[in-house]
Design brief:
The longest helix is centred in the middle third of the chain and has 33 residues. It is built from nine helices and no strands. Helix 3 packs antiparallel against helix 7. It is globular, with a radius of gyration of 21 Å. By secondary structure, it is mainly alpha-helical.
């Protein structure tokens, strides 16, 4: 009966809408909390990658930064699943970002290889690609064996000095250690690009990185486990992103007027 089918569809749509509103207003991870705005800031990285893919040429792609973002998102997908409260919005963001950044990396890699045929480049595209692939392998091994290695270490070496630090819930056997550690590569990539031609710096990407750094410095303090490594890396990310934005603003509004 068409009427029954229509009624069933309306009922299901109403249920989905009600659950969506409940989730949006949830006291622990709703729109009034950092658990919501942290992932939203990360969606800015996805938006930046998509916007640059459609509106900018491949010359704007920084291989070190984009490669770092690929590995970064692969780790933070696991982080989003393990952190408390579990953050599915963050998980979906990094799954999408992994795909978007991989697309951008491919575009940039093809462009840089073509440039290598014309003149000598400071950064070898194959070396960067190899580094990304190797890092992804390490990520996979860490995720697969972390819990097992932690349990074995606790069984055999729990009495040694520093065992408490090593076995901490945000220690080196957990994703809560490796995800923030990988995020340091974003700041390092920004530092390596400190003298990159201003017209080849992605404004969209740097706005997203700066916003992520600022918001996540707060988010790192309200999750379980509380993560000081994540706090400091986001402070650094906000500073390096802001540095490149200042360069863009100076170039656009001050240097050009002098000319």
């Amino acid at each position: 009966d068409p009427l029954q089918i229509g009624g069933l569809l309306l009922t299901n749509m109403a249920t989905v809408a009600r659950r969506f509103v409940q989730s949006l207003n949830h006291p622990e991870h709703g729109w009034k909390t950092t658990h919501f705005w942290g992932p939203v800031a990360n969606w800015g990285l996805v938006g930046a990658a998509v916007a640059d893919a459609f509106s900018k040429g491949p010359e704007i792609v920084s291989l070190p930064m984009t490669g770092s973002l690929i590995v970064y998102s692969s780790l933070f997908m696991r982080f989003a699943w393990k952190v408390q409260p579990r953050n599915l919005l963050l998980l979906s963001c990094h799954a999408f970002n992994f795909a978007a950044q991989t697309t951008q990396f491919y575009r940039g890699y093809q462009y840089q290889m073509e440039q290598d045929l014309k003149d000598e480049k400071k950064i070898s595209p194959p070396a960067v690609a190899g580094g990304v692939a190797g890092s992804l392998g390490v990520v996979g091994a860490t995720i697969a064996s972390g819990d097992t290695l932690r349990a074995q270490f606790a069984q055999r070496f729990s009495s040694i000095p520093m065992a408490g630090v090593i076995l901490h819930e945000a220690g080196p056997f957990t994703i809560h250690f490796w995800a923030p550690l990988m995020k340091w590569s974003l700041s390092i990539a920004n530092i390596l690009d400190y003298n990159r031609p201003v017209d080849k710096v992605s404004t969209n990407q740097q706005v997203a990185l700066t916003a992520t750094g600022l918001i996540w410095s707060r988010y790192s303090m309200v999750i379980t486990p509380k993560n000081w490594n994540l706090f400091f890396v986001n402070i650094a990310l906000g500073i390096t992103g802001a540095y490149h934005l200042v360069r863009k603003i100076k170039h656009a509004y001050f240097d050009e007027k002098k000319e």
